[in-house]
Specification:
Blueprint: E1 2-6, H1 10-22, E2 26-30, H2 33-42, E3 48-52, H3 60-69, E4 76-80, H4 85-94, E5 98-101, H5 106-120, E6 126-129, E7 132-135, E8 140-143, E9 146-148, H6 152-163, H7 171-178, H8 187-200, E10 206-211, E11 215-220
The chain binds calcium ion.
Pfam families: Response_reg, Trans_reg_C
Keywords: DNA-binding, Phosphoprotein, Transcription, Transcription regulation
Domain Response regulatory: 2-117
Length: 225
């Protein structure tokens, strides 16, 4: 996940860069609005922007305004001052997607950036493996031609596993991916959803394998010989 951080407070920018990198994000830091505008015109890599408002060169409002005027959909999270309600309103009206009031908890920033990128990622219409299929538009799960009833959380876990194909995902990744920001869920709860899903998709020719110490992955069951 490529993040562009535009913040002229060098200490804050440096801290953000370290925290976001620590979460596996590729971070580019700029301290100037004019530079940010140029980089955003050229870069197609940027998946989300963290944007301060008061910046040398061009202010954050103008950066967002120009970005949207060019038709870009890249999500923008504004950093605003505590008492500046007008700034938040103006930023959102200009096309920013979210904001955080300084000072903020970095965990909240990370969660919100992930949510913004997730919302902006186009989803395929159908995810399938073996006889298991999820119709994402109709929100229908099927094993063969039989519909399977899933709870909202079970659906979210299964969708996440299917999105990752044959890659191993950890319980924490599942939690981060399926929860709206602010909700809480234990690792044990993930185990419960996984065991329910195993029962429900038992006939699909697909197994949710436990990779001890790492997490889970979906695997097609070899046909019985
Ligand atoms: Ca500033």
């Amino acid at each position: 996940m490529h993040v562009l951080v535009v913040e002229d407070d060098a200490v804050l920018a440096d801290g953000l860069s370290r925290v976001l990198s620590g979460h596996g994000m590729a971070v580019e830091v700029l301290g100037n609005g004019t530079q940010a505008d140029l980089v955003l015109q050229r870069s197609e890599q940027t998946e989300v922007v963290v944007l301060d408002i008061g910046l040398p060169g061009m202010d954050g409002f103008e950066v967002v305004r120009r970005l949207r005027a060019r038709g870009s959909q890249v999500p923008v999270l504004l950093l605003t001052a505590r008492d500046a309600i007008e700034d938040r309103v103006r930023g959102l009206e200009l096309g920013a997607d979210d904001y955080l009031v300084k000072p903020f908890a970095t965990a909240e920033l990370v969660a919100r950036l992930k949510a913004l990128v997730r919302r902006n990622t186009p989803k395929p219409a159908l995810l399938a493996l073996g006889d298991l299929s999820l119709d994402l538009a109709a929100k229908r799960a099927r094993v063969g031609d039989k519909t399977v009833e899933l709870s909202v959380r079970e659906w979210a876990v299964l969708e996440y596993l299917l999105q990752h194909g044959a890659r191993v995902v950890s319980k924490q990744q599942i939690i981060d991916a399926i929860l709206p920001w602010g909700d809480d869920l234990t690792l044990n709860a993930v185990e419960v959803y996984i065991s329910r899903l195993r029962l429900k998709i038992a006939d699909a020719g697909v197994t949710i394998r436990t990779i001890r110490g790492f997490g889970y992955m979906l695997e097609q069951t070899p046909p019985a010989s």
